[in-house]
Every structure is written in structure tokens, then in C-alpha cells.
Amino acid sequence: MNSFPKLIAFDADDTLWANQPLFDDAEEELRLLLKQFGSDEQINQTLIDVQTENLRLMGYGAKGFMLSMIEAAIRLTDGAVRGTQIQQIIDLGKELLRFPINLIDGVEEVLETLSAEHELMVLTKGDLLDQESKLARSGVGQYFSHVEIVSEKHEAAYRRILSRYHVEPADFLMIGNSLKSDILPVVNIGGQAIYVPYHTTWHFERMAETGHPNGYVQVESIRDVLGLLQALR
After folding, report:
1. What pLDDT is attached to residue 153?
2. Which range (11-20, 86-95, 148-157, 194-203) has the least confidence?
3. DSSP class of residue 1?
4. Which residue in 8, 104, 123, 181 is deepest, having the highest Cβ count within 10 Å?
5. What average pLDDT does the segment 13-22 reach?
């Protein structure tokens, strides 16, 4: 980072609030529900396989995850899964659509401080209704001037958004917990990024941490963002 950004964007899930732990809990419930049909490893792998097949069609979010859990259950049981078990999976999915939002420690302090002088953006991927609902339930929506919800976070998506806001990549800062989605695509188009790792990461977002000279800054806590930006200013 070598210049103060004109536009500061935050990822949402597992950057502003806890999300993946809820999905991890749902997967554990699925393993318990289907334990007579396979080992934990078999159930995990079947769900990963089904999600891999479905991501391009269904995208990200709780609804696609719920349908993938149902399909995994059908596959694991050779179609013998009962209606009551499918209803339990549907109930798990519904809980993922309405769980109380728990902000990550320090988030509101950072947003309140930065929004007093700068326009902030939420830039997240997933289901539109689901992400809008989470932002509304979070209680921090008032700190953001812009909200962008996309189906995928790749270089082309970032370029489109920056073009729409008339911001050069060098004047853009992305803050998030995913190297794959939040950090490297932004660095690759010439933007700035702050990587804030979270203690658990979705299987499809995992990748080896790699040094990227002059590309991004890694911090331990989102509170560290304030110190970095104050130093730049």
C-alpha cells in the first residue's frame, strides 16, 4: 500500500460478521443425520462433489448449499433418504437464512471511524436476497454508501465495478478474509488490498498463503486497518 485510497470496500461474510461457522455447524448436523449411510469422510466428500457440480448453476449462498445437502443425502442413501430427513435438511437451510448476525470484534469501531470521512462500500458475493438480509440484520448498513453484490469476485467483476464508480484500480482498497476472492484479484488488476484472515475458511475459498511483493498487507485484526490507513494519510 503506497497511497490513500479513494474507495474503500469491505467483504461481508467472515470479514464483517461470522458466517462460515454456521455452515460448519450445518455440515456437522448433516453428518449426524446421515451417519448410518457413510463415514464423516464419505459424507464430507460427497457434499463437496455435489457442491462442485452445482456452484456454476446455483452460485453461492444458503439456498444452493441447502439444495446441495439434499442432493448429497439422496446420493449417499441411493434414494432411500426419508421425507422427514429431507425436511430436517430444509430446516437447516432456513436457519442459515435467518441466523442472528454476530459482528466480528472491532468491526463497528472501524466502520464508524472510517465512514465519518470516507465513502465505504460492501462488496460481497452470493445470493442477492440473502446478502441484503444479512446486511440489514447486521446493524451496520448505515456506514456504507454503496453495496455491490456479485455472483463471483474475479478480476473482470472488480474492473466492472471500478469502471462504474470511475475509480482507478490504484485508488481502490479491498479488505477481506479470502485470498482467492478478496485479495489476489484486486492485486492482479493493480488495486490495493488488506488481508484479514478468519479462523475458518470455506473449502472452496482455501488456498495456500503466498507472498505477493508490494501487493497486499496482512493484518491480525480488522482493528489494524485503522492504523494502516492513518499511516498512509
Report:
1. 95
2. 194-203
3. -
4. 123
5. 95
Q: Which amino acid is at 147?
A: V
213 lies in some domain: yes
Q: Chain centroid to CA 140: how far?
A: 16
Q: pLDDT per residue over 59-106, tens digit each?
A: 889 999 999 999 999 999 999 999 999 999 999 999 999 999 999 999
Vertex 7 angle, CA 173 and 226, to 5°: 60
Q: How many CB atoms lie within 10 A of CB 101?
A: 17
Task: Catalogue the E-assigned strands of 170-215.
Answer: 172-176, 192-195
Look up the CATH number of the domain holding residue 129. Answer: 3.40.50.1000
User: Which of 162, 169, 158, 192 has its CA nearest to residue 2?
Assistant: 192
The enclosing domain of 39 has a CATH number of: 1.10.150.240
Residues 12 and 37 in one domain: no
Q: Which residue has the cell 507472498?
A: 211
**Cα distances (angstroms) measured from residue 151 to each of 22, 98, 185:** 21, 20, 15
CA dihedral 158, 145, 109, 177 (to 10 degrees): -20
**E strand or H helix at 216, and its extent?**
strand 216-218
pTM of the shown model: 0.91
Distance of alpha carbon 29 from alpha carbon 162, whole angstroms: 41
- 54, 90: one domain: yes
Residue 153, phi-psi category: left (phi > 0), alpha (psi -120 to 50), beta (remainder): beta
| Predicted local confidence at residue 12, as pLDDT | 97
